[in-house]
C-alpha cells in the first residue's frame, strides 16, 4: 500500500511492510463492531434486554468462530489476545509434569515455559531443524517421555515464516496421549485452520493479525482438555476466564475471521508471488551478502533476511531500520514484541546465524494491500540504504 505524504521532509510515498506485527482494521470489521460500541452497550452477564442482546452477540460470534475452525462453540474461549491464550494453555500444566517446546517459539510461550520451571515443571526446548525452521517429527517423538503432558509448537514462526508439520506432530502426540498446543497467530490469515484435520488440542489466535481489532484473541480447547483459569473473579467463559466480556471485540474477531476465509487461497498465492519477487530483487542487487532466513516451505507473507558483514564490518540493524523508516518503509527486526531490545533475535540465533549477522536482521511482511509497486519501491530503497551504510562502515 503506497500512501501519499505531504511532509516535505519525508518521502512522498511510504510502504507498510510490517503486517506480521499488526494489520489495519478492515472497514467491514469496524462496521460489524460499531453497534456494540454505541447503542448496544449491555453487559453480557445481565438478564435484561440489553444484556441478552450482548450475550446473543457473544455467543453468535463464538459459534461463527467455531464454524471456521470446525470446532464446537463451547471449545472457544475468548481472551485479550494470543499472549493470554498462550499463557492459559501452558498454565494448564501441573507440577512434576513435562512440557516439550522449541527454542524458536514466541516469547509468549517461552516466558511462561520458563516460569513453569520454577513450579517443578520440566521443560525440554528443542532446537529447530535448520532445513525446516521448526522441530521435525523425529525430534518431537524422541522428546516425549512418560510424564510428558503437553507439546507446544507454533504453526507459523512469526519471524521467519517457517511452517511446522503440525498435523504430523499432532498424530504423534495423539498416539502418545499428549496434549498438543499450537500458536497459530501467523497462520490464520493465510492457511485453513480445521482443528479436526490438524488434530490439535489447543490453538491460540489473535484478531489484530488478520485485520481485526487489537485486544482480543481466542484459545481453542478441545473438549476434555482441562484448563486452570488465570483470570479469577467471574464465571465468564464457562469459568475459564473471568471478567466482563468485550462484546465489540468478540464480534470484530468473528468478522475478521470471516473476512480472512473469503478468497484466502487466491490471496495467499498472490502474496507469495510478491514475496518471492522481493527476495529475487534483493538477491540480484545485494548478492551473497544477503542471508535469507525464510525456508522454502513457509507462510506466504513473511520474508526474513539478514545482511552479512563486509570486510569484517557488521551492519547495524537498528540503524538499518531507522534509515528505512526515514525513507518511508515500515518494517521490523524480528518480532515486534521485542523490537525495542538491543539483543539479537533468539529465533535467528537458534537457526545458527552468527550474532553480528542476526543483529542485522530484517523482517518484511506483506499483506492484502501490498502491490507490485510496493515491492519494487521497497527493494530499491533497501538496496540504496544497505549500500550507503556499507560505504560508511568501510570508509
Your description of this structure?
With 395 residues, this protein is α/β, with parallel strands linked by helices. The protein has two domains: 2-17 and 263-394, Aspartate Aminotransferase, domain 1, CATH 3.90.1150; 27-261, Type I PLP-dependent aspartate aminotransferase-like (Major domain) (Aspartate Aminotransferase, domain 2, 3-Layer(aba) Sandwich). Helices cover 39% and strands 14% of the residues. It has 13 helices and 13 strands. The protein has helices spanning 27-37, 49-69, 82-90, 107-117, 137-143, 166-176, 195-198, 247-261, 264-286, 317-326, 346-350, 355-358, 372-394; strands at residues 2-4, 13-16, 76-79, 98-102, 122-126, 148-152, 179-183, 202-206, 217-221, 290-292, 302-307, 329-330, 361-365. Strand 7, helix 7 (195-198) and strand 8 (202-206) form a beta-alpha-beta unit. The longest helix has 23 residues, at 264-286. The protein is globular.
What is shown here, in short?
The protein contains 13 helices and 13 strands. It has 395 residues and is of the alpha/beta class.
How would you summarize the topology of this molecule?
Layout: E1 2-4, E2 13-16, H1 27-37, H2 49-69, E3 76-79, H3 82-90, E4 98-102, H4 107-117, E5 122-126, H5 137-143, E6 148-152, H6 166-176, E7 179-183, H7 195-198, E8 202-206, E9 217-221, H8 247-261, H9 264-286, E10 290-292, E11 302-307, H10 317-326, E12 329-330, H11 346-350, H12 355-358, E13 361-365, H13 372-394
Helix pairs in contact: 1-8, 2-8, 3-4, 9-13
Amino acid at each position: 500500500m503506497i500512501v501519499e505524504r505531504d511532509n516535505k521532509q519525508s518521502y512522498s510515498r511510504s510502504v507498510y511492510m510490517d503486517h506480521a506485527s499488526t494489520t489495519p482494521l478492515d472497514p467491514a470489521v469496524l462496521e460489524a463492531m460499531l453497534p456494540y460500541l454505541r447503542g448496544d452497550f449491555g453487559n453480557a452477564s445481565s438478564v435484561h434486554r440489553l444484556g441478552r442482546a450482548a450475550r446473543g452477540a457473544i455467543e453468535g460470534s463464538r459459534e461463527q468462530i467455531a464454524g471456521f475452525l470446525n470446532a464446537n462453540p463451547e471449545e472457544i474461549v475468548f481472551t485479550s489476545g494470543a499472549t493470554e491464550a498462550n499463557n492459559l494453555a501452558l498454565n494448564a500444566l501441573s507440577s512434576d509434569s513435562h512440557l516439550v517446546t522449541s527454542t524458536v517459539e514466541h516469547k509468549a510461550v517461552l516466558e511462561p515455559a520458563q516460569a513453569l520451571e520454577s513450579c517443578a515443571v520440566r521443560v525440554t526446548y528443542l532446537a529447530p531443524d535448520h532445513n525446516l525452521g521448526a522441530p521435525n517429527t523425529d525430534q518431537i517423538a524422541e522428546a516425549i517421555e512418560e510424564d510428558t503432558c503437553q507439546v507446544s509448537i507454533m504453526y507459523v514462526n512469526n519471524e521467519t515464516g517457517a511452517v511446522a508439520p503440525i498435523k504430523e506432530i499432532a498424530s504423534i502426540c495423539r498416539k502418545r496421549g499428549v496434549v498438543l498446543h499450537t500458536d497459530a497467530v501467523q497462520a490464520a490469515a493465510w492457511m485453513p485452520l480445521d482443528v479436526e484435520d490438524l488434530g490439535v488440542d489447543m490453538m491460540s489466535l489473535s484478531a489484530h493479525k488478520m485485520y481485526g481489532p487489537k485486544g482480543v484473541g481466542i484459545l481453542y480447547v478441545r473438549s476434555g482438555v482441562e484448563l486452570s483459569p488465570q483470570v479469577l473473579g467471574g464465571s465468564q467463559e464457562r469459568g475459564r476466564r473471568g471478567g466482563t466480556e468485550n462484546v465489540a471485540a468478540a464480534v470484530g474477531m468473528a468478522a475478521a475471521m470471516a473476512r480472512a476465509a473469503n478468497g484466502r487461497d487466491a490471496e495467499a498465492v498472490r502474496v507469495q508471488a510478491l514475496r518471492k519477487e522481493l527476495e529475487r530483487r534483493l538477491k540480484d542487487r545485494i548478492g551473497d551478502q544477503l542471508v535469507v532466513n525464510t525456508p522454502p516451505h513457509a507462510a506466504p507473507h513473511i520474508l526474513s533476511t539478514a545482511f552479512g558483514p563486509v570486510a569484517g564490518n557488521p551492519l547495524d540493524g537498528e540503524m538499518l531500520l531507522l534509515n528505512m523508516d526515514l525513507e518511508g518503509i515500515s518494517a521490523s527486526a524480528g518480532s515486534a514484541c521485542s523490537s525495542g531490545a538491543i539483543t539479537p533475535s533468539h529465533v535467528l540465533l537458534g537457526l545458527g546465524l552468527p550474532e553480528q549477522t542476526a543483529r542485522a536482521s530484517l523482517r518484511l511482511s506483506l499483506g492484502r494491500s501490498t502491490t507490485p509497486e510496493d515491492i519494487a519501491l521497497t527493494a530499491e530503497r533497501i538496496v540504496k540504504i544497505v549500500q550507503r551504510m556499507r560505504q560508511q562502515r568501510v570508509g
